Amino acid sequence: MFLHSGVGSAGEWKQLFLLWPAGYRLVAIEAYRDGTGPGRGGRRSLDDYADQVYAVAEHVAAPISLVGFSWGGATRPARGFRGTRAGGLACRDRA
Question: CA-CA distance, 59 to 43, in Å (whole number)?
Answer without folding.
Answer: 25
